[in-house]
Each structure stands twice: as structure tokens, then as C-alpha cells.
Description:
The chain is of the alpha+beta class. The protein contains 8 helices and 14 strands.
Amino acid sequence: MDSFLKVQGEEVLLTNLDKTLWPLDNYTxxxxxxxxxxxxxxxxxxxxxxxxxxxxxxxxxxEKGFYQKNCPLDAPPWIKTLPVPSRKGDKVTSYIMVEDIKxxxxxxxxxxxxxxxxxxxxxxxxxxxxxxxxxDPMDKVTFNQVVEVSLAIKKFLEEQGLKxxxxxxxxxxxxxxxxxEKKYSYQEVRVFTRxxxxxxxxxxxxxxxxxxxxxxxxxxxxxxxxxxxxxxxxNAPYSLRPLPGAPLSAPLLWEELKxxxxxxxxxxxxxxxxxxxxxxxxxxxxxxxxxxxxxxVLRPLL
Length: 302
């Protein structure tokens, strides 16, 4: 039965609230929308002013979903969008801008489970706010090995006087954000991240690879620096994943990784994240405020 929920002055249409989205866990669309209502104050700050790509699962996560960039034509008139011409100029994508809770609720009703922002904002789409190291493990890699490699990146960054902030991918990996002064191009940021990935690869050739082709990665951890590019996205902090248990991408403390306090990248989920937020708050917020200069690292690389 359809219903309406008044959110921030708008009547948001809700449909099929009992539709099961995580079949192994009996989480429904109702649970997804309730999660968005509650997580909004934490999630929205990482979405605002950024073009977004969504993973939609109208049939639930047990069925194949799809990625959506363009705002659907039947979206409510109050949904904000940002038209972005392609690099070739042959088409324009109308990205949805999530600026408020009511848009999150509407997305929940669209069965949008994964939310993937650009690394740059609408004020200057050419200049990313941070560099991202995406550690993508192949099937036989353990989480402890991913942690070991992430700590190596931390060490190499600190040798240059730089800070990185880790979060779980919500699947099997770890992603490390390095907030930057807003003056570096995507090409410069990619050169920066590739430099550190190369250092890690040289020290951990038995664990890591920079091979782009999945079949040639040899069961190692892929050091993905190529996500640092115009139009590329990465799953947002506190974004859910379409996996059993409804895991999400959770910010971490380096001390937790050093001490083995996090058993897996999918440990935090729709239910247990609340006790963590109550205890620690949003530990990822420095990536939106701190601005680091990487001139000294870049100079010999360009």
C-alpha cells in the first residue's frame, strides 16, 4: 500500500515498504528508509554539492542491480540536479544532488543502496578535495593483509608529514582519504597516489599489485589509484552495501587497525553502527576540513 511521509515540508511518496531488499536478513525498504532518516546528519555532509552515482536494487540485493547517474524524468520537482557535460561535450548528465533528508528518503524509496560521490564538488569539478587510496583485495586475501598494507600507506604518508584517514569499503577492502588543498588537478592527484602505491608495491610485491586486469592480479591486493579521476566515484562514508548483513562503509581509527580491533571490512552494518557513533561520533569529519599541501611530493614527480 502506498503512503506519504512529510519530510522537510514535502510529501514523499513511499511504495512497497515491505519489499525485502536484503533477503538473508529480512531487511525491507522500510528499514532502508528508516536508516536514511537516522543516518542523514552523518551522511549528508559527504554528499552535499557533489555529483552522485547510485546503485539501485528494485528487486532486492538477491537480484542484479544497476548504476544510475541521470535523474529519472518522474522525480519530484524539488529534487535538485546538476547538469554536467561529458568531456567530449556530446552529452549532458543530470546528476542528482543530495542536499537534504527528504532527498535521501526519496532515494530510499527508489531502492538506492550504494551512494557514490565524486571526489570534487560543484564549486570546481576539476579540483578534487582529497586523494583516495582504494585497497581492493582479491578473493584469497585476508583482512589482516589489507590492514598491513593500509598501515604501510600510513607510514609512507607520515614520512612526508601527511595524514590519511581510513574507512572500510563495507565489502572486503579499506579506503584511505588524504584531504588536500583545493588547488591540485585530478592528474596531479593521480600522480601523487600512484607514487605512494608504487612505494607500497616495491615493499610488498608478495601482497600487492598495480595490474589493472583482474585476471592478472594473482590473488593480491590491487592498489587502485585510478579512481582519482574526473567523473570517477567512490562509496561514501556510511553508505550501505548490497551484501548480506547490510554492511556499510565505516570510518576507522588507525589505532583500531594497529590493535586488530576490526575483524573485517564488513563488520559494521545497519544495526551496530549506532553504538559506535554514540561512542565516537563522526571520526571522519577531518577529511572535509583539513587541507594538506603536497607540493614537495609532487615537485620531483611532474
